[in-house]
Amino acid sequence: FPVGRRLGAASLVLFAALLAALPLASGRVGGHALELVAAFYRAGALVFGGGHVVLPLLDAAVVGPGWVSRGEFLAGYGAVQAMPGPLFTFSSYLGAAGGPEPNGVVGSALATVAIFLPSFLLLAALGPLWSAYRGRPGVRAALAGIGAAVVGLLAAGLWDPVLTGSVDSVWDAVLALAFLAALRVLPIWAVVLAAAGLGAVLF
Question: Helix, strand or coil for residue 191?
Fold first, then answer.
């Protein structure tokens, strides 16, 4: 739907205001609900180029303060990989599984809305400008550079927390590579279930 420049400007101001105000408010007012919204809004606002880039931000936001354990985080990440849709839906699990209250359905809803809200605000803000500027050589060159940087961010997200948190030995690495190869012949959900079953038996 068409977005006017005035609405776009208001969306950009709201995006920046929430990014600055939510951490300040959570620090002064307190309360887990506000901390949860601030953490997931920041993660959604600072990610560019793919959902996996958000993993280190989410890890710092929920594992760092002890809302979920590293094991719960990696288990949820594995489950989300077997489901369709964007990785941002991982926030629904983290909001529900984390503690203290609100968690469950309320925590899930707060985390999901907070992580997706920045994207919608930026779309509304940049929509009126995108069609006017996307063909310019400088903009295309900048996007190419950003795309290259995103590859590095994805590699960093794979390394930490995924590999550093789940691969502890050569045997773990061999299993991970075997299941990665299995993705060529089996659907993702089958590989995830097989890996979970084998993990339950061996570990």
Answer: helix
